[in-house]
Amino acid sequence: MRIIKAKQLSKDEFEKYGSYTDVTSPNGYGLGGFYPDRVGFPVSGEMALGISALKSERIEPMRVTKAEYHNKTSEGICCLNDDVVIHVAPASDVPVPELTEAFYVPKGTFIRLNPGVWHLAALPVHEAEAQVMILLPERTYVNDCIVVEYKEEDWIEIQL
């Protein structure tokens, strides 16, 4: 099993996987208290976006045993009640667990993953359960979700 350390979220380190913004403490140009278009989320035609709720339980140790990706869409992730750790690996049509990186994401930070980026649930850091908002085009989880379980020798432990 490989051990990786969760990195602090930064534009330079994360931009190959997607983008992010702090929705609880926005800065820069605003229209009063409204801060528009901080993260783009491209959709096409009549595509409807769905907001889903995820309850992610804390696990000790933080261990990655599987991952998923979406071919046709980005995925939005925002934890509402806790800091979380997310794991990501570059877009590929085959699993690349050896390229997995982990990022420490403060609560209230909206993450947008690029299409094809390997990932799975955000892992809570402090709380027993993270309350996570997921943004995906409707029904992506049934028509564009490839999940792969790793061989035990490819499992990854994430340390803070």
Structure description:
There is one protein chain. The protein has helices at 11-14, 140-143; strands spanning 2-5, 7-8, 18-22, 49-57, 62-64, 66-69, 75-79, 84-88, 101-105, 109-113, 123-124, 129-137, 146-149, 156-159. It has one domain (2-28, 49-159): Jelly Rolls, CATH 2.60.120. The protein has a five-stranded antiparallel beta sheet, with no helix packed on it. A four-stranded mixed beta sheet has the order 2-9-8-11, with no helix packed on it. The protein has a three-stranded mixed beta sheet with strand order 1-14-5, with no helix packed on it. It contains two helices and 14 strands; from the N terminus they run ββαββββββββββαββ. The protein has 160 residues and is mainly beta.
Distance between the termini: 16 Å
> How many domain modules?
1
Helix count, DSSP H or I runs of 4 or more residues: 2
Helix content: under 10%
Shape: globular
CATH class: Mainly Beta
Q: From N to C, what is the helix and strand string?
A: EEHEEEEEEEEEEHEE
- Output the strand order for the largest sheet: 3-10-7-12-4
Structural class: mainly beta
What portion of residues belong to β-strands?
35-45%
Provide mean pLDDT, rounded.
Answer: 94
| CATH homologous superfamily annotation | Ureidoglycolate hydrolase
> Which sheet architecture does the biggest sheet show?
5 strands, antiparallel
* Radius of gyration over C-alpha positions, nearest whole angstrom: 15 Å
Annotated CATH topology: Jelly Rolls
Annotated CATH architecture: Sandwich
Counted beta strands: 14
Give unreliable regions as ranges.
Answer: none
